[in-house]
Write a structure and sequence with these properties.
The chain is an alpha+beta fold. The chain has a five-stranded mixed β-barrel with strand order 8-9-10-12-11. It is flat and about 75 Å long.
Length: 455
């Protein structure tokens, strides 16, 4: 029975490996087939060009495409520096896909307080991966399947067969282990459960992925064969009253979606913040803490670094390190004098003695400044990012919700409950309480008002 179970497991693994390899090979597209490139949304173009793995360029391309249709206004304040705002008249309504409505709603929320750099608007998905990017990615994937450009990597029949086979192998392992023992069910149940969980997890790793259809492969071939365009830039505000939009915005959107070399900041959201959205990373996975995020709290748009919260006396290690180094040098000097009590220190010990005194003075100054900070403080700050993290503790693995704010001088990190995390909006003002010595947020209160963007 054990040999049969092991043989069945090897056969299942062989079938699974074949399915994983064969479903990863995309169909060969034809650049001249169909005419979908002229009307396809840039996000779907990015989806097929990336082989069914959406990336951040889709979000930036959607912003440009919405501007080409008059939903947003794109201006160029300097060569290669675009600003995004809202049209003076009401934007055209209707005809938008669900993911386009999501992007437009976020753009209206932010640009409604004044025009802002295109890069800031595009980087919004990297600053809010569990909310904005996860919703955008899900909507684009659904649209790709509805339009026949992509399909699930495993068909329903193959998925059912693999799951049934995994259950069968787990049952065979259970029976084989049960026949080798005279009493007890713990070991057979444990062995069968482990095999079942491992095999079904392998199947689950492929269920959330898409593969291209023939239509999707043809669209990808058209997009990669098309000229990049975008050599010219819009020099003035486009008025929706003219009835036409600069074709260059559409060309830029397609070029960005197709991964063409476009010298425009923000076309690859996450490059500056260190959080590359999409690709192999699924939206359901916890996101990483951004290295930096955009803030306008100081009166001008700037990219501010986000550092992890610290532990009191350890968040700023320089005072302790300076005092420790001074004490070490002092011990060495005393040891040298004890070994040769009659000898003069001379120039040999004068240098380390001066270094010890200097380090001690620096350490005391830094420690004084550190202790002079209040234990608690309350102030108004701007939310600049939020993310989720997996946390391993003594009670087992857990899930934490974190956010970062900027007070105009420095950034702070905090942890929120799931209910508060759902209410946090990037770009809004919050009233926070903090522990300045550890640079940690201890609480927050929401404010309805939001600042106007710097001009």
């Amino acid at each position: 029975m054990m040999k049969i179970a092991i043989g069945a497991g090897l056969v299942w693994l062989l079938i699974f490996s074949a399915c994983a390899v064969l479903t990863r090979i995309p169909p060969r597209g034809r650049a001249g087939a169909g005419r979908g490139l002229a009307t396809a949304p840039p996000a779907l173009i990015n989806l097929v060009v990336a082989g069914g793995r959406l990336d951040g360029a889709a979000y930036a391309a959607t912003i440009l495409d919405l501007a080409s249709r008059g939903e947003l206004v794109i201006t160029e304040s300097a060569p290669g520096q675009l600003r995004c705002g809202l049209p003076r008249a009401g934007p055209p309504a209707g005809g938008l896909a669900s993911f386009e409505e999501l992007v437009l709603g976020e753009a209206r929320r932010q640009a409604g307080r004044g025009p802002l750099p295109f890069e800031v608007l595009a980087e919004g998905v990297a600053a809010d991966v569990p909310g904005l990017w996860a919703s955008f990615e899900k909507a684009v994937r659904e649209a790709g399947r509805q339009r026949g450009l992509t399909r699930p990597r495993l068909s329903g029949l193959v998925l059912t067969g693999l799951v049934a086979g995994a259950i069968g192998v787990a049952l065979l392992i259970f029976l084989a282990e049960l026949g080798r023992r005279t009493a007890g069910l713990a070991a057979p149940v444990f062995a069968g459960t482990v095999v079942g969980v491992v095999f079904t997890s392998l199947v689950g790793s492929l269920t959330g992925q898409d593969r291209l259809t023939r239509a999707g492969a043809d669209l990808a071939a058209q997009a990669t064969a098309a000229p990049a365009g975008g050599a010219a830039w819009p020099r003035s505000v486009w008025s929706p009253g003219t009835g036409t939009a600069p074709p260059v915005l559409r060309q830029l959107a397609v070029a960005v979606a197709a991964h063409a070399a476009v010298p425009l900041p923000g076309t690859e959201p996450g490059r500056r913040s260190g959080v590359r959205v999409g690709g192999r990373r699924s939206a359901s996975q916890p996101s990483r803490r951004p290295r930096a995020a955009w803030s306008s709290m100081s009166g001008e748009w700037r990219l501010v670094p986000i550092r992890r919260p610290g532990i009191p006396l350890l968040s700023n290690p320089f005072p302790a390190l300076s005092l420790a180094a001074a004490a070490t040098l002092a011990v060495l000097i005393i040891g040298a004098l004890v070994r040769e009590p009659g000898a003069s220190p001379g120039i040999v010990l004068a240098v380390p003695l001066a270094a010890a005194v200097g380090l001690a003075a620096v350490g005391l100054v830094l420690l004084t400044r550190y202790l002079a900070q209040p234990a608690t403080a309350m102030f108004t700050a701007q939310v600049i990012a939020r993310w989720e993290e997996d946390l391993d503790s003594d009670d087992g693995p857990g899930h934490v919700y974190r956010y970062a704010v900027d007070d105009g001088q420095q950034t702070w990190c905090g942890e929120a409950s799931q209910a508060d995390f759902a209410r946090i909006r990037v770009g809004e003002l919050v009233q926070v309480s903090a522990a300045p010595r550890s640079r940690t947020l201890t609480g927050l209160d929401f404010i309805r008002a939001a600042p106007g963007w710097p001009r």
